[in-house]
Amino acid sequence: LEAGLLILVQYLLLTLFNLIPVGLRVVAIQGVKAGLYVAMNAEGYLYSSDVFTPECKFKESVFENYYVIYSSTLYRQQESGRAWFLGLNKEGQIMKGNRVKKTKPSSHFVPKPIEVCMYREPSLHEIGEKQGRSRKSSGTPTMNGGKVVNQDST
Which of 21, 41, 110, 121 has the smallest C-beta neighbourhood within 10 Å, fewest atoms? Predict the structure, then answer.
């Protein structure tokens, strides 16, 4: 029984996410344990990113049934303009964003506040500056797993 409980605790730690506001009804989703951001690419596939990019921004909407849905702020169906959503199938596997419908339970999430933390908002401006410069930077702090670190250490 203790081994099973340990596995459950480890599993639960991997399923906890920080929702970080980065705009009006826009959030970044960051894994608590690994500190990686959830991102969606141009094909609708989800991936993890160790840095905050525009692909890490998701619109957060409260649906009619009080569930929350998350859609990519960058990508949508080209012809119809329909948004691409985060979703999990019945087995808990990630679904491709363009296959997820906002009315289906696969896209419905229930955020549960466990702890309220104050984060410094990840800045796309800083990311642009960082990419435009060499590896050495001004030392402006950025977020890394909820901890403030200097960019020089990245």
Answer: 110
CATH of the domain at 72: 2.80.10.50
Are the C-beta atoms of 58 and 74 separated by less than 8 Å? no
The answer to whether residues 153 and 52 touch, using CB atoms and an 8 Å cutoff, is: no
**Number of folded domains that form the chain:** 1
Residue-range definition of the domain harbouring residue 117: 2-131
| DSSP β-ladder status, 26-31 and 147-150 | unpaired
pTM of the model: 0.66
The dihedral over CA atoms of 57, 53, 78, 106, expressed in degrees to the nearest 10, equals -40
| Contact of 122 with 98, CB cutoff 8 Å | no
Helices (H) and strands (E) in the chain, counts: 2, 9
Which residues does 54 contact at the CB level (< 8 Å), separation at least 6?
Answer: 73, 74, 124
Q: Residue 19 in contact with residue 60, Cβ under 8 Å? A: yes
pLDDT digits (tens, 9 = 90+) for 42-58: 999 999 999 999 999 99
* Cα 48 → chain centroid: 8
